[in-house]
Amino acid sequence: MITPILPTYNRVDLVFERGEGAWLFTKDGQRYLDFTAGIAVNVLGHAHPHLVAALTEQAGKLWHLSNIFRIEGGERLAARLVEATFADTMFFTNSGAEALECAIKMARKYHSVSGHPERYRIVTFEGAFHGRTLATIAAGGNPKYLEGFGPAMPGFDQVPFGDLEAVKAAIGPETGAILIEPVQGEGGVRTAPWAFLRALRQLCDEKGLLLILDEVQCGVGRTGKFFAHEWAGITPDIMAVAKGIGGGFPVGACLATEEAAKGMTAGTHGSTYGGNPLAMSVANAVLDVVLADGFLDGVLAASTRLRQRLAELKDRHPAVIAEVRGEGLLIGLRTVVPNTDLIAAMREEHMLAPAASENVVRLLPPLTIGEAEIDAAFDRLDAACTKLEQGLKADAVKGAAA
Ligand SMILES: *Cc1c(COP(=O)(O)O)cnc(C)c1O
């Protein structure tokens, strides 16, 4: 019999009642170290006092207003993001996929109002993940996510990640934009070489294309810069943001330059909930912390410490861990054993982390992670790897005996 909730997830059989920082607590008081962070969402951990205060204060005043009225919190958030990024303007959404939908529509509209409605195609990359709407599954191109949902939305040309010649070959008279994650999250924590991002920027400038970045997972401090593209020293024309910007409240945004946004005039796009006062109060509170002096230095320091310990872990357990990759606190452990085996063994040690493609376990701690928690993570990972190795040895003995 079908469950009351549509069974589209294979859920872990754990029920959490509350969270605090990097920890989650079950009803019976068991404590888990949370390196999932809602998939890179809870950038300030669970129940951060500043976010709780912002949310509860706003909840007593005003939750929701239609976008047919001015929303002060949104005006403030947008002004702060304009100040802190390449963007001149933005549209607020409730999710990453909606931010990407806005980005795709904006790119098409830009060329349409520039006299080139035929330039609607977008070059995308293998291993990409842009969301689960019809347009974003077409952009992501993952056959597993497209299967059975009818013809894929036209307009996306996918090439291998990092392959500049393939990008050039894919560009034709109908191409209008290039869409890429600076660091692929779901795709296995794969960093686009910064030189490749710079080459894409140059190519876009030469050919009159828009560069669209999907920083839904790698943005908002996750890599140790406010946005990951800053490492490459480039700026996009359009950028999709979500996950971390709301710290756990559903918020997304599509940021753009004035030029790229020139077709998005009154009536061309909309959202009932996007940018409502409750969401804006929390996102502003996230920025209070993430943009404060020294916060990103703290992310880099935590990253350095965690990665040192992970290098040690890899040396101790070469039969389990093949590679440590990623940027900042967007880290991937490529495993020798199936990644799901390590995730299950970690869970037995009360540590939680999500999988990614290429047999990778993602480590996505809150950006506020401290030294004690990093050491706790090492101990739990070390115990999980040790158990897996004992299992591998036992299997080898059985194999030799047979
Ligand atoms: C999670 C994610 C999305 C989709 O965000 P939703 O909020 O689930 O719609 C898009 N792009 C990237 C890179 C993501 O990690």
TrEMBL record:
Its main location: cytoplasm. N(2)-acetyl-L-ornithine binds at residues 132, 271. One of its GO terms (biological process) is L-arginine biosynthetic process. Keywords: Amino-acid biosynthesis, Aminotransferase, Arginine biosynthesis, Cytoplasm, Pyridoxal phosphate, Transferase. Its EC number is 2.6.1.11. One of its GO terms (molecular function) is N2-acetyl-L-ornithine:2-oxoglutarate 5-aminotransferase activity. Pyridoxal 5'-phosphate binds at residues 96-97, 129, 214-217, 272. The modification N6-(pyridoxal phosphate)lysine is found at residue 243. May also have succinyldiaminopimelate aminotransferase activity, thus carrying out the corresponding step in lysine biosynthesis. Belongs to the class-III pyridoxal-phosphate-dependent aminotransferase family. ArgD subfamily. This is Acetylornithine aminotransferase. It comes from Starkeya nomas.
